[in-house]
Structures are given as structure tokens and as C-alpha cells.
Fold this sequence. Notes:
Layout: H1 10-34, H2 45-60, H3 77-88, H4 101-116, H5 119-135, H6 147-162, H7 180-191, H8 204-218, H9 222-237
Helix pairs in contact: 2-3, 2-5, 3-4, 3-7, 4-5, 6-7, 6-9, 7-8, 8-9
Amino acid sequence: MMPIPSRSVDGGAHTGSWVRAAVAAGLTIGLLVAGCSAAGPDVSADGRLDYACALAARAQDSGPAQEWTLTPGAADPALNAVAGAAALLGGMTATTLEGHEDLSEAAKVQYAQITRVDSDGIQAGIDNMTAACDRSGLPEGEPDISLPGQVAYACALVADARQAGPPAEWDPLVGDDAEPAIIETLGAAALTGALTATPLPDHADLTEAGQDLYRAATTLDTNGLTDGLNTFGDACDG
């Protein structure tokens, strides 16, 4: 991983109707609170693949990378999408995902191009990732990759990572057997602008927390990961 740039019966029928109404009401409340679909963002291994490929497709539709602004602090939003895709595919942890070797290889190369701020390399990486996604028939669904959708997904990734136990017990943090929680953590950091040092509109606190997570991950600082996950989670809850 590379250094960080500077600075998510009759009676029974009546009872059944009541239960259905209660469930529906509960779901409605859940939607209002969570601001996402009833099921919530899919951060499973398959869900991350689907989301990454949707992000790559969006980047492909955002015009050539050679025309993007890549300046840290003012980077084109599409660059966060590309970085998020690379992270979710294991590019930032040097992880090869079983059954998706071509996707993982493309993600590793893409991550290197992003850290070099190489617009030609970034565009070639987008081409390679989308081609690999197409070969795998991904994305299968239509995940929400709007800016609010990316924020919601990043928050869901961190919430799931926090359920994996303390980072000090995540082993290893890099390589083919990397703990999935570190992939989720870096995916969240990338989606919120950690690699571009570009604050998200109305979510500068998430970008700052994401940079702290990225810094901790690149230095294998498990205490920093713990603190960063807590800060990121609090920002999501706020």
C-alpha cells in the first residue's frame, strides 16, 4: 500500500393484517432513519464485487480520465469511484479474489496508477476493470452509486467491518488471505476521498476519518484502525 496524500382463520386474518401493517410501518421508519433500501447496502463478498463493477462502469461513462482534475483536494468525483472500485476488488491490499483473478489484477494495477496520478494509466485501468467485469457478468444488479449512495455504502462497509472484532485480531492485513474487514475499511476510505484528499460535499468529516483509516492501514497501525473506525462510524451515525 502507498502513502496517503496530504491533507454509507378470521381472527388470524385480522391479526395477520395488523402484523403486516406493523411490519410495513417498521420498514418505513427504518427507511427514514437509514436513508437506504429496506435491505440496506449489500456489503457481502458478492455485493462488493457488484458495487465495484458498477463504480467502474460509472467511471467509464464519466469521460476520459485524461480530462479529469486529479489535483489532491480538488479531484474529480469519478476518481473516488475508481479508487473505491480498486479497493473493493482487493487492489489496495494486494489481494487476489478467488474466481476473480482478472478483476483483482486489474484493481492492483489501477491502485498503482492512482497513487502515481497517471491519467493515462488510470484510464487504461478503467478499461481493464470494466472489461474484466463484463467477462464476469457484473454488475448483476443496479446498486446505488450516486454520491449519497456511495456515502451510505461506505458507512455500511465500516459498520460491517466493526463487527469483525478488533483490528489487532485481523490477520493478515495484506495478501491473498487478507481479512475481509480491511478490504471493507479501505473501500470506505477510498469512497469518501481518502486517496484524493478531496472533501465530500457536506461530508468533510467522513473524508477526514477516511484519511485517518487509510493512513493507519498503510502503516499497519491497528490502534489507529480502531480509532478511525470508531470516528468514521460516529460520523455516519451523526
